[in-house]
Amino acid sequence: MADTLDDILAEYEFLDADDRYRLLIDLGRALEPMPDALKTDATLVRGCSASVWVYPVRQEDGRLHFLADSNAAITKGIIALVLQTVQDRTPGEIVAGDIAGALAPFGLEKQLSSNRTQGIPNMIALIRATAERMA
């Protein structure tokens, strides 16, 4: 995921609905692979219509790097977008950040079905709770 959130948003804004889906799917495909052994009940995000797993890895410098996966292509793209806001930041930066606000310009709730977006607050809550615990 070399692009910044701003770069992704600039591209997203120019796309029609179908191409926005394709962009989300491409973001999901670009996620770093998550080993199946990490896809456990403990890493499962509750309240998502699809299965979503998020696993934090503390880097030597204290920053958090997240591995994530989903069994649904669009949902995998959504978690990839969420990770763009927190990847390789310190726990304090993640806790202080406004993840939902950073994602608001994408208007995902207008673009995607409520089934696909209902889990976003839960993804954010899990990442924030993880950062708070590791701070």
UniProtKB/TrEMBL annotation:
Residues 15-129 form the Fe-S metabolism associated domain. Gene3D superfamilies: 3.90.1010.10. It comes from the Bacteria. Belongs to the SufE family. This is Cysteine desulfuration protein SufE. It comes from Sphingomonas jatrophae. The lineage of its organism: Bacteria, Pseudomonadati, Pseudomonadota, Alphaproteobacteria, Sphingomonadales.
